[in-house]
Write a structure and sequence with these properties.
With 103 residues, the chain is α+β, with helices and mostly antiparallel strands. 45% of the residues lie in helices and 17% in strands. It is elongated, with a radius of gyration of 20 Å.
């Protein structure tokens, strides 16, 4: 059976006590947990340093920028040019910046 042929559930909402659980939301939650689990396994398998430079870990969008080395990423973040641009960004938007080695 191909994934596209799996029928929709007969009920759109399931109730866990007083909490209504919608099927679509449940799939998103499961997908998030699977993505975090797989990403964490990959990072642990490859090993590496990680440093959070800004933010609180709850961003809804992610941007990944690849550098040749961990040190190049730190140097770019700490450069005078980026810090000047960062000042403009901070007045308009929240950001979370992590530098992770080995992904």
């Amino acid at each position: 059976m191909e994934l596209a042929y799996i029928p929709s559930p007969s009920h759109g909402v399931y109730h866990l006590g007083p909490i209504p659980l919608r099927g679509y939301a449940f799939c998103i939650i499961i997908g998030v947990f699977v993505a975090v689990w797989l990403g964490n396994k990959r990072w642990i398998a490859r090993g590496g340093r990680a440093e959070q430079l800004e933010g609180d870990g709850w961003a809804t969008r992610r941007v990944v920028i690849e550098f040749d080395t961990y040190e190049q990423a730190l140097a770019c973040y700490r450069s005078a040019e980026y810090q000047e641009a960062c000042g403009h960004r901070q007045t308009a938007a929240r950001a979370e910046i992590f530098i992770v080695e080995g992904l």
